[in-house]
Each structure stands twice: as structure tokens, then as C-alpha cells.
Amino acid sequence: MPEERPMPRLLIVRHGQTEWSQNGRHTGFSDIPLTEHGLQQVKKIAPHLVGDGLLIDPKNLCTAFVSPRQRARKTFELLFEHIGELPKHVFTEEVGEWDYGDYEGLTSAEIKKLNPTWNIWNDGCPGGESVEAMEARVDGIIKKVREHHQQYKEGKVDTRDVLIVAHGHFNRVLISRWINFSLCLGTHFNVEPASVAVLGYNHNSLAEPALNGLNLSAVFA
């Protein structure tokens, strides 16, 4: 019998530290650069996680979806800097951060002064994305990823993995929706700056999505 091919995976990365992520300000569309520490975070983990035979193996990547914000773009570039070549990719708002609308740039404490009962997981963001809009956007990108994975399982392509480089709230929502839970489960996932998570499947079945690993880069921090 021919050897069964490995199951496809979705690799998700949160960008490195920014000034606003450090002080807790909600950063959606604001184009905040990485801090020097954020740059070093990504540079430190890249050689351990990206390369031939490593977790993020360029030869296994069919495509990468990258948020257009400079903090995500720079993280993506630094991950592959030591390789000397970027994998096939697209910069897309589909994986941009939750649109915080009226709460952009505010800390949670500042938001609570305006709206004491506010909870993003239940209420969304006034002037920005509702819970329903965020869930629909994330579901859309999951659909695209699973189309890539289906093609691989059917033997139509040889590359099995998809990479997403995005943001804290986006990645937490993505994990929740990937495993078929409501968006609000994201509150229970800790997604650190410059962290890597792996989403996959159980029992060799695309019908059984699973969380394989979370904050894997922490071992190199």
C-alpha cells in the first residue's frame, strides 16, 4: 500500500510586540510598527520554526494570507528573512484585526469608563465590526483554507499547509471557529505576540478539525 500522506495544517502567527500591544491599546486599522523588542522576538524564533524540516517548512506551504498592517507584514518578512525568499502569499484585509471602530486606540479600562458592561465577545465594537460580521469574515477565510486542504487530500496539489500572519483577536476568533465553536470561546485562548499556533484535524479526517498546538514559539522565548 502507498504511504498515507501527512494531514494538512493551518499555521497561524501573531505579529510581534508593538507599543500598543505592550500597553493594552486596541489596535485594529492603526498601522503601528513593531517595537525593537517585537523585531527581536520574531528574529529569535524564525530560525527554530521556519526552514527545511521545521514546523513552517516553505516547501510544504501552498500559500500564506498576511494582514496588510505593517506589524504583520514585517513579521511575515522576518520569519523568512534567513531563508532568503518569501513563500507564495497575498496581503489581504480578510485576515486583518477586528475593526474596533469607536474603541480604536483605547485600553479596556478606558472603554469600561464609556461602557461599563462592554464585552467584545458579546457586543462587538460600535462603529466597527459586530460579532456577526467578525464571525462571518473569519468563516470566509476558513472556507478558503479548507478548499486548499481538500485539494491536497484529493491529490490535486502537493503542498499541504497554509500560513496566516495576523493579530491577537483575529487569531483567537479563528481558533474558535476552526474547531466549530462560537466566536466567544476565543476569550479562553491566550495568543502571545510573535506566537505560533497549529490547527489541523483528528483521525485523518477533514470533518474533524482540531487545535494541535498553541504558543509553540514560547519554548524559544
TrEMBL record:
<feature type="binding site">
    <location>
        <begin position="97"/>
        <end position="100"/>
    </location>
    <ligand>
        <name>substrate</name>
    </ligand>
</feature>
<dbReference type="Pfam" id="PF00300">
    <property type="entry name" value="His_Phos_1"/>
</dbReference>
<feature type="active site" description="Tele-phosphohistidine intermediate">
    <location>
        <position position="15"/>
    </location>
</feature>
<feature type="binding site">
    <location>
        <begin position="27"/>
        <end position="28"/>
    </location>
    <ligand>
        <name>substrate</name>
    </ligand>
</feature>
<feature type="binding site">
    <location>
        <position position="71"/>
    </location>
    <ligand>
        <name>substrate</name>
    </ligand>
</feature>
<dbReference type="GO" id="GO:0050278">
    <property type="term" value="F:sedoheptulose-bisphosphatase activity"/>
</dbReference>
<dbReference type="InterPro" id="IPR050275">
    <property type="entry name" value="PGM_Phosphatase"/>
</dbReference>
<protein>
    <recommendedName>
        <fullName>Phosphoglycerate mutase</fullName>
    </recommendedName>
</protein>
<dbReference type="InterPro" id="IPR013078">
    <property type="entry name" value="His_Pase_superF_clade-1"/>
</dbReference>
<dbReference type="InterPro" id="IPR029033">
    <property type="entry name" value="His_PPase_superfam"/>
</dbReference>
<feature type="active site" description="Proton donor/acceptor">
    <location>
        <position position="97"/>
    </location>
</feature>
<dbReference type="GO" id="GO:0046390">
    <property type="term" value="P:ribose phosphate biosynthetic process"/>
</dbReference>
